[in-house]
Every structure is written in C-alpha cells, then in structure tokens.
Amino acid sequence: MIGKKIFSLLTAAALACEGIGGISAQAEESCTSAHDIVAGMTLEQKIAQMIMIQCRYWSDTNRYEDIEDLTSLNQPFADLLERYSLGGVILYAENVKGTEQTARLTSELQTAAAKNEYRIPLFIAADQEGGRIIRLGTGTDTCGNMALGATFDANCAYENADIIGSELAAVGINVDFAPDMDVNNNPNNPIINIRSFSSEPAIVSEMGKAYISGLKNNNIIGSAKHFPGHGDTDVDSHTGLPLIDKSYEQLKECELVPFKAAAEAGVDMIMTTHIQFPQIETGTYTSISTGEQVYLPATLSKTILTDLLRGDMGYNGVIITDGMIMDALAKNYDIYDTAELAINAGADMLLVPLDTYSQETISDLETYIDVIEEKVGAGKIGEDRINESAERIVDLKLKRGLFDHDYENEDVEAKVLNALATVGSYDHHERELAVTNKAITLVKNESNVLPLALGEDEKALFFYANNNADNSFGFAFDRLRSSGVIPEGAVADTYFYPEKPASDYAEAVENAKAVIIASDSWGEINYDPDEEHGNGKEAKFIDEMTKLAHEKGKPVIVISLMYPYDAGRFTDADAFLVAYGRNMMSEVPTSYTGNVKSYGPNLISAILTVFGGNEPTGRLPVDVYEIDSQYRYTDKVLYPVGFGLTYEKKNESEPEKTAQNVINDIYPVSVYDTVSGGAGRVAVIRGNAGGSSAAASAGSDSSAAPTPAAAPAPTAQTSTETNPNTGRTGVLALSALALAAAAVFAKKKTEDNDN
After folding, report:
1. pTM reported for the whole predicted model
2. Spatial contact of 492 and 459, defined as CB atoms under 8 Å apart
3. Is 752 a catalytic site residue?
C-alpha cells in the first residue's frame, strides 16, 4: 500500500476525537474504538457516515443534459466532503478513465474527507466484478464469474480476485462491490446471468469464498451481492421492480446458501437487492407511480435484513443497499420513506440515495440528511439504530486500516508509479488468460471438427456482431502463429456480420476451410430470427450462414460470448464453444505500461482453443435447455451441469457414462442443510466411489462447517462422456474438477427445474 503510515490506530482514533472538540491525554488513550469515535459525533454526522454518494459527473447549469464526466475532484464536491463526514463514494466508468488519473482522484477524495473535523476516511468503492462488470478503464478485466464457475476450480476464483484486488488497492479503491453470489437459476435473467458463478449453490459458495479471500489478500473490502438473491428473476431491478414468489424454505435450499457461506467466510459487506419476496415480507406500500400496492422489497424489509440476515444467519458485518436511485425504488417509493424504511429494516449504508451532479442536487442531499435527522427527532427512526450502523461502519474502517494513512501528506507520485506498474500489467494479463483458458467449454464437436488445423495458405472466416471482436481475434491469431500452432501462411478474414446477409459471403465461404461465428445473443430475446424489432437479426444470420456453409461442405463453429444457453439454440453448428464473456479489445496492446485500455480475455481464449492452442477443459456450470419451436426455453435439459468435451481421443475401453455419474465417482456430492438458526451449511457429504459414506451432523446449534469426505487428488484421468439427450459422445477431462478447500460439487437436480 502506498503512503506514509504515520498514524497508529491509537493516533488515528485520537485525531478523530480531537476533531470532536479536544480531549485530555487520559481521554486520548481510551478513545480507540468505533464506539468512542461515534459517541463524540453529532447525529447529523453519524447519518452522513451511513451514506455513500456518487460523483459520477457534473453540470454547472444544474441541467442533467449538460453533465460532463467527473475525473478530478471539483470544489463543490470537495466542500461537501469537508462539510459532512460522509461514509463513502462510489466510482463509475465516468470517473475512472486512466490509471494515473484514478490514483490522483482517490487521493483528492481522501484528502478532502480528511479536512472534515472527524477525519474519518472514506470507503471508495467500485463495481469491479470482472468480466461483464468492470470499472477500471485500464485494468485487467479477468474472465468473469460464470467462466470461473466453468473451471470448477476455486483457485481460479482466488487468482482473478487477487488480480482485481491488487489493482484496486494500487489506485486507492478500498471497496469492491463483488463477488456476485446470486445463483443464476433462471436462464432468462437479464441482469445477472454470466455475472453468477453457477446455477448450483455449492459452486457459487466455493467460488465466492475463494473470491472474497483473493480480495482480502489485498486488503480490499468485498461485498457479497445481491441478498437474498437476484438469480431467479426475469426483470432487471435497474428498470423495474422484480418479484420472487418463493418461500423461506425454498430460499434456504438455494439462494441463501452462498450468502451463508460468505458470512461464514467473514465477508465485510453484504449488499441488498430491491426485489419483492411476498412469501417472506408481506408489508406493502402504495406505489407513487401507479397507485397500486407493492410489497416492500428486501432492501426495505426488516424481516429480511434483521430477522433473516442478522438473526437466522448470524451476519454481523455491514449491510449496504444496492443503489437507491434504481427504478425499482425510485419509481415506486418516496425517497424519504425509503430512507426510513431501509434504516429501520437494518441497512447500515444507503448507496446513492439520490443523484448528485450539480450544486442544486448537492443541496438536495443536504436536505435528505436533514430529513433523516428530523425523523430521528420525531421517533420514526431510533437513534440507537443510527449509532449501531455508524459504529459498524467506523469499526470496519478501523479493522481494514483506513485510518492508518496520512492522506493529507500522502506521497501521491509514488502511489501513481506503483499504480502504473500494477494496473493492467503484462503479468496480470497473462494470469487472466491462463485462468480463462481453463474455462472454455466445448459442448459439441461433430466429426472432430475441432481443433481446426489450418494448413499453409488455408483460410478461415470469422464473423462477429460486437465491436472490436476483430482485434481480439487478430491478437489470438497472431499468438497462434508466433507459437507455431498455425503456419505463417494461414489466413483468417474477419467480418462484422449484421451489415450484410449471409448470401453475400458465398464466394468467401467457398474459398474457406471453415466458418467461425461469435454469438452475442442475450437469450430468448434474441433467438427468434423473425422478431420484428430486429432483436433476432444475429440469430437469423447465424442460421443462414450455417445453412450456406453446409451447402458448400464447410463446417461451422459457433462461439457463445454471452449466455451459455445459446448452445440449445444453434444446434445445427458442427462445433459449439462457450466463452462466457464479450469484452473486446478497443485497441491491440503494444506494451503494458499501466495505460493499456482494458479488454476481455474470453474470445482470445476461445480462438486459441478453436485452433488447438488450448485444450478445452471447462464444464458447464449451468444446465442448458432445449429450445422449442417458438424459440423459448423448455424444461428439457439438453446439456447438464458438468457437461464438457475435450480434444483427447475416445478411450474405447471406458464404459459410457453421463457427466454427472463421472463426477459422482470422483468427487463427493453435497446435500444442503437449511440455513436456520444461523447454522445452515453444506451438511451431508457422501463418500467417494469405493469408500464408506461419511455423514456430517446437521445439528442446527452448531456454527462450524463439517469436514467433507476426503476427495482424491485431481489426476489426468479421462473418461468417455455421453450426452443422455443427444447420444453424442466425447471425452470429459476430470483434472480441473478440484474445488478448493471443501472439494464439493453441487447436488445435481434429477427432476426438471420448476422455478
């Protein structure tokens, strides 16, 4: 960590107390705890500690249409931070344009906060999940959660989080709103999906715990989200108010399992979700938009936050809301009512309770704090509730060393040099590629089309629908050439396919050895080729190009860049790979000096895999469903969790098995106990093949997790795998199946998913 550590914990707390009004030497010695610090604060400042604002952009005219991105601290925000002891600031892509710029911005923010009389450092947060959700414009994207789930190796989750954590720390960001610990059990989920590790709670739990550990290795505060679960929705809470009609018992069997694991792993924060759970929270509110009665979402529910999370699950860390200006709340609830409800529900921090982008909106924030203070005075919010949250926030800042820095005298130039050497470094990009290579999942390979061997002067065609995919393809193709996997004379032509119909490429297909298509669809919304608004134009092209290529005797390889469920849509392809990520290269890097624009590794790894530069060892972390004639998901599982092929030749001596049976033979299967009495956990472990059954006690009064039955060390063993629905065979590699620590694999559903 950069900066002169001139404050001991005692000195830091003493300075905070001194700012409260001066203390004697004896009092200074005793003022070392969050309780003591908060006890000397005014009610107004304690409330301010509970608020995390955004300074995403600024408008001098007070008009939203005139906003500009804010990349350095301006005077109005500096004055706000000096006036109030605000709990934190969240940064977005608009704030984070470059490594040096970001490092300087965080120093400016902390310096302004240090001028407040209480001198309490800021939480500076970002949503740097990796994969689809990233903020560091020059950072290392990493492959994303579902790709990590596909490795079935929690060490990969640790590795990704370690990279992310080191880069956040280098630029001065101390809170990562990650990992996403939602169980993606709804393939139509528009906002979570590949942000989730898996549809299986045990995989999400193990990956999430490893991710939290990787962040902690860099002293970064992690925040498990979105409690109690956002995976089983088909509505985005940014734009609507979702509802999950599940009982508490159902949630305990699935959605709550990863959050319990995160709590037991010591996650510092848990973020709430703005979703209605009417079987758990029956309280209602009259929507300010429609006048209809809507249920209180989790963020505003005392039953969910206090009774369930604090009580039943025993969580004692900081509870932070998701953004309060998201439409789920903003379109249905009055902002002052949501403040009262969220605080009384048990939320410690209110994330972006209103937008702040002008002097006028800063005044609105000041009014917001005043209104909360008035509600406390009127007895609508208990002051003990405010004290509890403020102490929990300050205590976390003390524990994570935020008070150990003299921000006003920080060596910013040294911080910048370290950041430039760390963020987006060559080493980080190589590490992310190594992890991503393990995630690439081969689910179909008719006639052993892959790996695709290009000879001298042979050509492949690559079609893509998202910007800059040709840069990523070219980067991978050059690497294949330089490593000797393909000859110098091999050629690949790249085309942006929505521009023309497939028929326009007939001659190019005739002269090519194979056609590679990147699918960038977002599920059912993009599957119907006749969809009148154009959402199905990519699917239409893939269908037509596949037909054209087959007419000319050319194989078609489809790579899914977004949802793995595409494997059930494009079944006419000869080979199908899942990459789990769509971030591309806006520019091809020529050096790594801390200023390389961020890019995703997923397509790069997929292309390496297509041509034999990487062996596919990933397995599906979600079930892939068959698609009906109306292009909708059915209940029939086409490819189950754990399905994955390799390029190794079939071992004829091995009996044919389903993917799940192979996994069951090698690793224990976990059965979930309920998350009741604060003691829910993976509770029953079946012994491995040939061994005795080992059952752990499921006593609800124990908080210690049971020790799983010992799993054998991973080996290079392979076994023939057959998809029970299609009869297609391939080889399932088992070497990557080691889940760190618990070494458990999710209990596979044998019945159709009815959620």
Report:
1. 0.84
2. yes
3. no
